[in-house]
Design a protein that fits this description.
homodimer; seven-stranded antiparallel β-sheet; 2 domains; 18 strands; CV3147-like; alpha+beta; six-stranded mixed β-sheet; CV3147-like fold
């Protein structure tokens, strides 16, 4: 066990935005909340997954809703607390630790704020190794952990406890309740034993996020190329370099959907790249080639600062570098591809790993 | 305590359709389910409210959704059972009896089917003395009983437990979940103590429904005018006699909304009457006068058979008699008018009791 203080949070926020692949909500809000909580309640204990007892109860905490709504409706922290209290009552058991459900933006950081507030440790792991837009898109689900009992709580004092036959029904009902409850709520979701966490989680996500943040910050102060350093750390690929020339973004059914067009610069001069997103970036391609596809990670970095840009942060004229990162092996199984591969999102492609796509493009 | 058998159910179904003021779903479905349950499990014990112990737990059972959906998606009985089991777990108490939430159509009869199935008595009362379209439109709510914990269960095996700050939020969230869960669900709602039932319920609704059914059936076999007999029983008013010449009905936001136009016959020849409904009939008027308005009861009877017609049963060409019945005094309080009066439904009228409106029309 080690402790996370304010410097660690600053680095984690950068890593969370990068692994968030454009989605997961603005990490800035989560960072501010986590820092405030640390200032008030002290550093947050971080537990390695291997330190969990098999029968410990671990409950991920996550915000659900459209990122654009989250930016306007900042959570107070009471919602997360209310969701945990309600779930403890349902389970009739004490929750031992919380955990991020995803390695993306606000949802990497909100569990840290909650942990500080209620004096619980955070488990160093998550259920995606990236961000995804739907509740069942987690490795917990791939490994058969039940999505429910799931508690949704809003800032007004309403909560609901869902018990569904599968994760898809949980997603459907929770999504519609979220819309009615004001567009974003806090969830206490996928309650698990320590044993289930060990089997189904992605390990050491917070430590990786912290390393990503530190790598980018240190590269800059050491005069190194921060993008190259990050690609080395993550076994990633530089997909495309250019300038955003068009961005189309709509809130639809609780999601932010759209497409960005990037006009090539440097070695990509004369080409165009396109990114399709639904909260997160799902497909990156040029007019002739596919560059990267979900569940592999597509991230947009500011070419100058090497800092990640969220879908809502993309602006006309920004100079950006697209990078692709191999996802966790759990996502490359047939079930992983079924749950979060290109066809689930309506793209008529067979999944091809980013490393294969980029060998091919290099020929 | 007395027992309800098949003959009583036949009469109750007629009374329920009449007090249902056009809404509450097709009583036929509820009747079939109650009769099947009695055939399988025996007669249903009916408890007078005065027979309840003060600390007995009583939980009304009701279907939520658009009546037109209910007709196509008949409940199996498992949903109601599942909602009760889930609520007992939440309350951590044994439920002693069930009760209808409304005196309208299917929701008067479904609690009888549930009671037979799980061997609980039914309380002779309800929360409306009629039917209304929204969850907070009950005398329980007027008297400060909490709508939640409220359980919604569907036929697939999903359930959700709502805890909201008030009845309006319960209505809003439950309505949207109902739509996603297939358009109709079973609720276990307004859990109450015997003491709360005594304070807030409308007394002897099932007995009244049974009397209405018996009055109509006996009048016919005795050659009496069944409509006149019913009006005497209920202190009601004959509002208008005519033929349905237009009917406009739409499913909108989980409700069936619309208007019917009736061309006058007999003493109303030359006039037109109009009924506005949202699941239930809300306003009856002619070109020059208002005849009756919510929360008073507006019911459409077949002029020939004296049997009540639901909003979904209204057909072009049917000869009908509109009757108006004073609602329970609980609805005529300022809070009752606020919750279920004309302005709540968007009609710019002050509430005037049906007996006043019909004095005036008689001048």
């Amino acid at each position: 066990m080690r402790y996370l203080g304010i410097e660690e949070i600053e680095n984690i926020a950068i890593g969370a935005a990068l692994l968030g692949t454009g989605g997961g909500g603005d990490p800035y809000i989560g960072k501010i909340m986590a820092i405030q909580a640390i200032e008030e309640f002290g550093p947050i204990p971080l537990l390695d997954i291997t330190e969990l007892e098999d029968d410990d109860i671990v409950v991920p905490s996550a915000m659900m809703g459209a990122p654009t709504v989250m930016v306007e409706k900042i959570p107070s922290g009471e919602e997360a607390l209310a969701s945990f209290k309600a779930l403890e009552k349902v389970l009739n058991k004490k929750i031992k630790a919380t955990m991020p459900i995803e390695a993306g933006g606000v949802n990497s950081l909100l569990p840290l704020a909650l942990a500080a507030r209620i004096g619980l440790p955070v488990v160093d792991g998550d259920g995606m190794g990236r961000a995804f837009p739907e509740l069942q898109m987690v490795t917990f689900y791939l490994e058969g952990v039940s999505t429910t009992p799931l508690v949704l709580a809003d800032e007004k004092g309403n909560n609901l406890v869902l018990n569904t036959i599968d994760g898809l029904w949980a997603e459907k009902i929770a999504r519609s309740a979220t819309m009615v409850m004001g567009g974003s709520v806090m969830n206490a979701i996928y309650p698990m034993t320590g044993r289930q966490v060990k089997q189904s989680a992605i390990y050491r996500t917070l430590t990786l996020e912290e390393k990503i943040g530190r790598t980018i910050r240190e590269a800059k102060s050491n005069g190194l190329n921060a993008i190259d350093e990050v690609l080395t750390l993550l076994n990633g690929f530089k997909l495309f370099t250019g300038k955003i020339v068009d961005i189309d973004r709509q809130t639809d059914g609780g999601f932010v959907k759209g497409q960005a067009k990037i006009s090539g610069l440097d070695s990509n001069k004369g080409e165009n790249a396109y990114i399709n997103f639904q909260n997160e970036h799902l497909i990156a391609k040029t007019d002739s080639n596919i560059l990267c596809m979900t569940p592999d990670l597509i991230t947009v970095l500011d070419s100058e600062t090497a800092l990640p840009i969220t879908t809502e942060g993309m602006r006309y004229g920004s100079r950006v570098t697209l990078i692709g990162i191999p996802c966790d092996e759990k996502w490359r199984t047939p079930k992983g591809i079924e749950v979060a591969g290109p066809r689930y999102f309506g793209y008529d492609y067979d999944f091809i790993p980013v490393e294969k796509l980029n060998e091919r493009n290099d020929q």
